[in-house]
Automatic annotation (TrEMBL):
Keywords: ATP-binding, Cytoplasm, Kinase, Magnesium, Metal-binding, Nucleotide metabolism, Nucleotide-binding, Phosphoprotein, Transferase. It holds the Pfam family NDK. ATP binds at K9, F57, R85, T91, R102, N112. It is found in: Cytoplasm. The active site is at H115 (pros-phosphohistidine intermediate). Coiled coil: none annotated. Its EC number is 2.7.4.6. This is Nucleoside diphosphate kinase. It comes from Anabaena sphaerica FACHB-251. One of its GO terms (biological process) is GTP biosynthetic process. One of its GO terms (molecular function) is ATP binding. SMART domains: NDK.
Length: 149
């Protein structure tokens, strides 16, 4: 089953949006597989954002993501990677569609509330980076027959 990695960034935590953000994935019908509240080390932040290492905003991004606690999560479901990206919205909250998390709650690209994996392969890499195998919980929600035929 397809899985994605999501992380509520320090601004989402500081602004008291943890419940609101998790609710959107939960009520959509995706399945929570793992969740932890944690401070991010510089090493983990740099590995997570490795593809952006040469970008001018890299240092600021690492500083921001390590500046306070985050909520790291794995969610499961058919098409969850692309669907979660839609629920999250475009990278710059100023132009994200209303109805998306970033569109509803943000105004700045450097404070865009949540990370979501951008592809299935990226999700696999990020899940392995942030979670140990025994932190991932496989379970069968009783809701499933009411969500899909
Ligand atoms: P996304 O988080 O939508 O996948 P991304 O992978 O292109 O976006 O960039 C990772 C994060 O880096 C993004 O959430 C916010 C920050 N970022 C991206 N472009 C930026 C820019 N031009 N200035 C400042 N921060 C930026
Ligand atoms: Mg990205």
């Amino acid at each position: 089953m397809e899985r994605t990695f999501l992380a509520i960034k320090p601004d989402g935590v500081q602004r008291g949006l943890v419940g609101e953000i998790i609710r959107r994935f939960e009520t959509k019908g995706f399945t929570l597989v793992a969740l932890k509240f944690m401070k991010v080390s510089k090493e983990l932040a740099e590995q997570h954002y490795d593809v952006h290492r040469e970008r001018p905003f890299f240092a600021g991004l690492v500083e921001f993501i390590t500046s306070g606690p985050v909520v790291a999560m794995v969610w499961e479901g058919e098409g969850v990677v692309a669907s979660a990206r839609k629920i999250i919205g475009a990278t710059n909250p100023l132009t994200s569609e209303p109805g998306t998390i970033r569109g509803d709650f943000g105004i700045s690209i450097g404070r865009n509330l949540i990370h979501g994996s951008d592809a299935i392969e990226t999700a696999q890499r990020e899940i392995a980076l942030w979670f140990k195998d025994d932190e991932l919980v496989s379970w069968q929600p009783h809701l499933t027959p009411w969500l899909k035929e």
